[in-house]
């Protein structure tokens, strides 16, 4: 018969009955915890760095004009409605959103609330009555030209990098917006900090994809066009 292999001695329990971990076990557990936290921390750091970079790039932004194409997919029927339009943004708080004919609708949003013009005329809606519609438009204004860091109060933000594009996913935390909006996906040019595409997914399954082009910064804008008609 061969020699019996030595058996590692059992570790003695502490007076309370618990087994005291060895130094190797402690180091191994610490390593596992660090590995588990690293991706989350790295992602958070990447998000903060991207939001800060975009904010700095937008510091000098006074006005913004852009064309856009909006494709709205409606419900389970997957019916698509395509619209063309123009965006006019005057920092820090005024935006004009024109849907060209055949839609022929204009929205204005500013400190006093929301106004809309269609074939029936101009309708003004105060800040209180505008509700979630004004809130979403206000967030869109921030996404297009404001400080994205302010959205962290109302949205859970995450980020992905795709070549020279920053893709920011915003999931509503605000209870009112959360009732209607599932998520917003923002695609921005990483260098110019200009938004190139916004995808709005609603709770009911409707989805709008807005693609921007011909963006022009800091050009003169007639003040009369950025306010709704009296």
A few lines on this structure:
By secondary structure, the chain is an alpha+beta fold. Helices cover 25% and strands 40% of the residues. It has an 11-stranded antiparallel beta sheet with strand order 6-5-4-3-2-1-11-10-9-8-7.
Strands, count: 11
Report the top-level CATH class: Mainly Beta
By CATH, the architecture is named Clam
Order of helices and strands: HEEEEEEHEEHEEE
Task: Let me know the CATH homologous superfamily.
Answer: Lipoprotein localisation LolA/LolB/LppX
Helical region count? Answer: 3
Characterize the largest beta sheet: strand count, sense, and whether it forms a barrel.
Answer: 11 strands, antiparallel
Helix content: 25-40%
Structural class: alpha+beta
Strand content: 35-45%
Description:
- The chain is an alpha+beta fold and 230 residues long.
- It is built from three helices and eleven strands; from the N terminus they run H-E-E-E-E-E-E-H-E-E-H-E-E-E.
- The protein has a single domain, classed as outer membrane lipoprotein receptor (LolB), chain A (Clam).
- Strand 3 (94-99) and strand 4 form a beta hairpin.
């Amino acid at each position: 018969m061969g020699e019996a292999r030595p058996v590692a001695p059992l570790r003695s329990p502490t007076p309370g009955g618990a087994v005291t971990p060895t130094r190797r076990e402690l180091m191994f557990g610490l390593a596992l915890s660090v590995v588990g936290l690293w991706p989350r921390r790295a992602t958070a750091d990447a998000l903060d760095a991207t939001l800060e970079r975009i904010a700095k790039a937008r510091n000098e932004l006074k006005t913004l004009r852009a064309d856009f194409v909006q494709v709205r997919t409606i419900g389970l029927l997957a019916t698509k409605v395509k619209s063309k339009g123009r965006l006019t943004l005057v920092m820090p708080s005024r935006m004009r959103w024109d849907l060209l004919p055949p839609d022929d609708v204009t929205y204005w949003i500013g400190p006093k609330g929301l106004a809309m013009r269609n074939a029936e005329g101009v309708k003004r809606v105060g800040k209180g009555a505008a509700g979630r519609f004004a809130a979403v438009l206000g967030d869109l204004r921030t996404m297009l030209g404001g400080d994205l860091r302010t959205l962290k109060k109302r949205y859970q933000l995450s980020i992905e990098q795709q070549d020279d594009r920053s893709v920011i996913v915003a999931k509503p935390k605000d209870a009112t917006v959360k009732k209607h909006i599932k998520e917003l996906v923002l695609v921005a040019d990483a260098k110019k900090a200009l938004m190139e595409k916004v995808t709005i997914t609603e709770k009911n399954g409707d989805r709008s994809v807005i693609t921007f082009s011909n963006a022009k910064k800091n050009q003169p804008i007639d003040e009369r066009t950025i306010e709704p008609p009296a």
